Amino acid sequence: MNNASASQSDGWAHPDKKLQPKMRLFISFDVIDSTAIKRKERDKELHRSAWAEHFSDFLTETPVLYASCYEKVMKELCPVKECRKSLGTCCLYKKSRKYHRVKVWKYIGDEVVLTTELTCREQPLLHLFAVRDAVHELNKKFSERGAISCKACVWTAGFPVGNIEVAFPEYQERKRKVRDYLGASVDFGFRLAKYSKRERIAVGHSMLALLETFRVGEETLKLYSGGPVELKGIDERYPLFWMATPAFIDDGKEYPHEVENPDALKKFLGERFFKDKPWPFIPEEGKFGDCYKELFGKAVKFQESLKYSVYAKQQDGTDEKAKQQDSADEKAKQQSHKQQMLKTNEEWAGQKLATEQDEQSEQK
Hints:
Strand order of the largest sheet: 2-3-1-4-7-11-10-12
Radius of gyration: 32 Å
Structural class: alpha+beta
CATH architecture of the largest domain: 2-Layer Sandwich
Oligomer: single chain
Number of strands: 12
CATH superfamily of the largest domain: Nucleotide cyclase, GGDEF domain
Helix content: 40-55%
CATH topology of the largest domain: Alpha-Beta Plaits
Order of helices and strands: EHHHEEHEEEHEHEEEEEHH
Number of domains: 2
């Protein structure tokens, strides 16, 4: 858990942007019981637009509403009071302005997954408050229509150690690059999302490790622990942590344990998850441990070799195509020569026949 300070200018941060150290935030918003809703409408023999309209609105409105919630939280909860007057002059906004916008990573059926790069230590807590507010607003909005309800999950993944970022041309528009994120930490979030509910937002342990406090201004994060739960293929006894939304009512039946001390939480996370692994960090803050540097070097070396391997295969493919083209050109040349010879022979035969006919006419 001890991290030695270092900056990205120390020479070991990679010049390739895809291989530079990054901490990415992932947020999943998903419709609850979506299959049951569709089946119910089908059983009523209603036109499919009865449910399709609500689902379409959810998928298109969620990214916009979340961006609005985050900017509102940033403005209202910035510790510098003067910043609350205008978002444009907010120090947090300026500090993270390059990456503060959350973008849609992908749509998976009735689920929309957002992502952004974390660039300052204040962002994780602000994003958690924004997710809480967004879930509340979405459920309020769609419940008024008597339509659907949603849940959310929040987690992080570090790159390029343990996870990779890939970019490839979009099928229909070659100039535009589509980015995808692969790795165990990315997959982890989709397993965790299973335990989210309307009033409970599941939060990954790496995201919690980035929190330095639960309180900003007058707002305090309501965090609870429950479990353990099974994350298939990852952890059979994973200690579940979740954040309460305004819809949460502690009825005393499940006896959730509220987590109130950030230091005690970090101690638990360190003993449970990070004994032999580097502590999660935000690269822009310049905290790189020696353990991470070693893993970073190995990850970069592997991905560079992978990249070279792909390039080599592409070159082999290019060389093979060139050979095929040369062979085709040679065949075409031979065919052309053959046709020219036949044409010449035909002309010669024609001239010979004409000469013979002329000679026969003269003899007569």
